Amino acid sequence: MLKSCVNLCLFVLVALLSIESSCGNYRRKDAQTLGERVQQLTELSLKRPVIRLNGEKFRHFIKTSPRNYSFIVMLTALSPQRQCSICRQANEEFQILANSWRYSSAYSNRIFFGLVDFDEGSDVFNMLQQNSAPVFLPFPEKGKMKRADHHDIQRLGFGAEGLARWIAERTDVHIRVFRPPNYSGTIALVILVALIGALLYMRRNNLDFLYNKTCWGIAALCIVFAMTSGQMWNHIRGPPFMHKTQRGVAYIHSSSGGQLIVETYIVIFLNAAVVFCFFFFFFIFFFFFF
């Protein structure tokens, strides 16, 4: 009887040690797997700040647990056959944002940027129940993604600066956006100054047009039309030119807190039409009654 009890105790002890050893090996395997994933993601991001993901990579890097890093994913359709001009513009801003993080002094493996093209990962679109593009989704290191965390392109646009603020609110990672130098504005300004200088030189003997009230009035109206249409808001927020919906192309923003670029052109045209009609009827009235 005593021998049976000893054998039973030894059996239980061996079983407990085996379970503990298996759990330890499992934890070490998980840790190694997480470390390998982080190392692989770091190597990929060093080569290309925006990591292209298909269904398999999406499940491996984002859906697999545990995960000690956040992932910002853009769902898009860059193929020319998809005819998504907004997707190309959003991709440019997303690339600027990812490059700004990659080459900043605060760069770490806390956050990575990924891109899922519809033609390469349609199963990801189905998994996330998304049927439009572009879409920006945050996958935090802890917790699940919430519907309220989605980036509202219609309201906030897809400019790199706006995306950086959105990421800071969701992940506490602050990214300072560095845009590549764009000399088109400088070149246009130089050409404009050169043309004005050439015009003044050619008319140097007759500069009466500088005192022409009509010219100055037209110039002032152009500035007013541009400012009241929301051009400065477009410059700051970087909204899309137009928006594609399930019902077709939208030229007017559905929210009172946002606008589209084409919408500003419509406002300019309407304001100009009002001013033109006002002056037209004013001159007609003046011609017939005075």
From TrEMBL:
It is found in: Endoplasmic reticulum membrane. Its main location: endoplasmic reticulum. GO terms for cellular component: oligosaccharyltransferase complex. Keywords: Disulfide bond, Endoplasmic reticulum, Magnesium, Membrane, Signal, Transmembrane, Transmembrane helix, Transport. SUPFAM superfamilies: Thioredoxin-like. GO terms for biological process: magnesium ion transport; protein N-linked glycosylation via asparagine. The chain crosses the membrane at residues 183-202, 214-233, 265-289. Pathway: Protein modification. InterPro entries: OligosaccharylTrfase_OST3/OST6, Thioredoxin-like_sf. Subunit of the oligosaccharyl transferase (OST) complex that catalyzes the initial transfer of a defined glycan (Glc(3)Man(9)GlcNAc(2) in eukaryotes) from the lipid carrier dolichol-pyrophosphate to an asparagine residue within an Asn-X-Ser/Thr consensus motif in nascent polypeptide chains, the first step in protein N-glycosylation. N-glycosylation occurs cotranslationally and the complex associates with the Sec61 complex at the channel-forming translocon complex that mediates protein translocation across the endoplasmic reticulum (ER). All subunits are required for a maximal enzyme activity. This is Putative magnesium transporter protein 1.
